[in-house]
Amino acid sequence: MSGTRKPGQRVTPAATPGGMQLFDRDGSRKYLTVAERARFLRAAEQAPREARTLCMTLAWSGCRLSEAIALTADRVDLAGGVLVFATLKKRQDGIYRAVPVPPSLLEALDLVHGIREAQRRRGRGSAARLWPWSRMTGWRAVHAVMDAAGLSGPAASPKGLRHAFGVAAVSSGIPLNMVQKWLGHAQLSTTAIYADAVGAEEQDIARKMWE
């Protein structure tokens, strides 16, 4: 039978309607595990300051690289504890989402990018991009940290960090509709693919039933 699983064969989850998968054609994982993300963040601590804050933002918010590069000082809500991203994948402009992030990230952004100072100026920092870089410059900065962390393969990328955020959120018991909001997915079915996490993440999800 064509649907029979052979011994040792890895089952690759089906793609979402939009085509997103957590594994490539060779069955390699496209997301970082919790331990790999921790290694990445430790390596980021040794990177230049602007690269470090970019890496932290991608890891802790799950945003797309292009969304991070577009972030301006006025969209860093220090009091509310959130970053406000323009959801660039939506068909129309003016779609924003607020993503809660750790205080350590907000403190780092303020220290490196002068958020409070920028917000006291006219326009509250709406013209002050945190990373006035091209997307390629941001991509290179992230990959330099991936290399320093000893990470390689499909998961060692900005998209791998985004997928890691989704997997970690689902593994922590965050409702799918909340994860959908934070990631800026148009369809819940796209977000639901993170419930197909494997390995240690799947064990963590299953353990909630055993305890």
Layout of strands and helices, then pairs:
Blueprint: H1 34-44, H2 49-61, H3 65-69, E1 76-77, E2 82-86, E3 96-100, H4 103-113, H5 115-119, H6 135-148, H7 158-171, H8 176-183, H9 188-191, H10 200-210
Antiparallel strand pairs: 1-2, 2-3
Helix pairs in contact: 1-2, 2-4, 2-7, 7-10
Number of helices: 10
Biggest sheet architecture: 3 strands, antiparallel
Beta-strand percentage? 5-15%
Going by CATH, the homologous superfamily would be Intergrase catalytic core
CATH-defined topology: hpI Integrase, Chain A
Walk across the major sheet and give the strand order: 1-2-3
Order of helices and strands: HHHEEEHHHHHHH
Summarize the amount of helix as a percent range: 40-55%
| Integer count of domains | 1
Structural category: mainly alpha
What is the gyration radius calculated from CA atoms?
A: 18 Å
Count the strands?
Answer: 3
List keywords for this structure.
single chain; 211 residues; mainly alpha; hpI Integrase, Chain A; three-stranded antiparallel beta sheet; 10 helices; 3 strands; 45% helix; disordered N terminus
Question: What would you say about this model in short?
Answer:
With 211 residues, the protein is mainly alpha-helical. The chain has helices at 34-44, 49-61, 65-69, 103-113, 115-119, 135-148, 158-171, 176-183, 188-191, 200-210; strands at residues 76-77, 82-86, 96-100.
